[in-house]
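fyi for ur records
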Amino acid sequence: MIDYEEELKKFEPCLDVTDAEGAIYDHELTDILDVLQEMLKESKENRRVRTR
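which gave:
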């Protein structure tokens, strides 16, 4: 049987949207746009090397 009093003691509320947003933006995470920009940059650099 579930001990509701014990479960309530362990409860931690989730972050508000603004708190979650701050926690997410405080980390330097690579997203797909960062990956695509890096690939484009490398592609342009490789073209310069081949034409020289």
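The chain has a mean pLDDT of 82. thats all i got for now
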